[in-house]
Amino acid sequence: MVIPNNNQQNNFALVAEKTKKIISEIFSKNVNEISEETSFISDLHAKSIDTIALLAALEGEFKIKIPSQEVQGNQTVGQAIAYIESKLFKNQE
Q1: Which residues contact 30 (CB under 8 A, 6 or more apart)?
Q2: N or C: which end of the chain has fewer CB within 10 A?
Q3: Is residue 4 part of a domain?
């Protein structure tokens, strides 16, 4: 297991913060209501149009491509954050 250095820890925290902010804006929630355990379906009542908007916003913010077939694997905010981190930091380990 690789222990991230302080800079990597800061990067992970920044990804989580930005992701939660985008999710709160799309779902019209206070960012403090969004946790890593928040479910897109049962807590945020995500619909297809919400998912499309969220994908576009996350891809734009983080400059990554999220294939639609991989979206269904991200049921919670924490899973989405982990997925984004894996795309961004895969070459840093």
Answers
A1: 24
A2: N
A3: no
